[in-house]
Amino acid sequence: GENVEQHPSTLSVQEGDSAVIKCTYSDSASNYFPWYKQELGKRPQLIIDIRSNVGEKKDQRIAVTLNKTAKHFSLHITETQPEDSAVYFCAASILRTGANNLFFGTGTRLTVIP
Amino acid sequence: DGGITQSPKYLFRKEGQNVTLSCEQNLNHDAMYWYRQDPGQGLRLIYYSQIVNDFQKGDIAEGYSVSREKKESFPLTVTSAQKNPTAFYLCASRTAGLAGAEQFFGPGTRLTVL
Questions:
Q1: Which of chain A's residues have a Cβ under 8 Å away from the Cβ of B97?
Q2: What gap in Å lies between CA A55 and CA A53, rounded to an integer?
Q3: What's the pLDDT band for A41 if we cut at 50, 70, 90?
Q4: How far is Cα B98 from Cα B76, in angstroms, rounded to an integer?
Q5: Are B102 and A34 a contacting pair at CB < 8 A?
Q6: Could you read off the pLDDT of B28-61 as tens digits, one per residue?
Q7: Beta partners for A37?
Q8: A6: nearest CA partner in chain B
Q9: Residue B98: predicted pLDDT
């Protein structure tokens, strides 16, 4: 099955700096890569996703890049703010008619220092 | 928020007891999922269901059981066979097909075995 690895497990940045979280996946058939943000004690919420037919996607201060050849994808947060502090999970999936199960990384705890 | 509800928010269980966690959604989603979240291990899939009266084991199904008698409901029973049940349990759902990529999560149930 799919194996998703995520690094780093913890990340501290100064407010206003950029943060980068990296993930690798093992199944070359995976074609959907979402990123979820989970604040303490809350549910995970989708912040951005990318499909394998594009290499980069941006949404304001958040961007995701995908390298299918190397089987890795990254989350980039620019101009970080204290409210960006949370645990971030990457995931991979094979979108098709069926289960579309998500395989999650182990998470990155991001702390933005004011 | 809204759309997927889980109850109770906190649950305490004595060793040897079975407990049932509720998950209800009014999003008309076909697929539903149960995840277990432990510190440093991300989200691990317990069971999933694509349609009513059908469900499949995930990666860590041992000691758990589910039912899917209604489209809106996917309860999870943690049995006494689950040796380490203390964890945060998350339910999720999504619509069917290739367009249904995003999984929406419930607020979670924190189970503690006393």
A1: 97
A2: 7
A3: confident
A4: 26
A5: yes
A6: 999 999 999 998 778 999 999 999 999 999 999 9
A7: A45, A88
A8: B42
A9: 66
